[in-house]
Here is the input.
Amino acid sequence: MSKAQLKKQLNSLEKSQIIEMVIELYDARKEAKEYLEFYLNPDEDKKLEEFKKIIQKEFYPSRGEPKTRFSVCRKAVTEFMNMKPAPEKVADLMLFYSEQACQFSYDYGDMWEAFYTATENHYERAMKFLSENGLMEANKLRIKRILKLTEVCGWGFPDSMYGIYEEYNM
Here is the structure.
């Protein structure tokens, strides 16, 4: 169903029917519940911290070994973005993800190639987002700290990260 068709269908319903449908959706889907709660009470800082904890747990869990599941981190960023917070908050989460990955590599030594590739891919998405939203200058110090963390890594990782930065910092 297209958005136009959905809009037409919703316009044909009574207010009470729409309310009932939204309540059913709220009960049926975790994502819908989170979205509606955020939509009605948009505490961006609280949500940002929740998603930062998800990412941090992948690299620095309070118990057990790190899992470094980039899919979990990507999902956290995507879910946060889908809530439509301010671009500054999205940039904060994206940079936090890059910081955690680079700090992890700095702390534990050389990683496997797929680790670096996933980190580079996310970093490139972050740089593109910052550039498109005019947030490069405001985040320059954080970006420089991220790059500094990569300098002890292998696999050409520092060169790739600096290259990505230069591409978007023109």
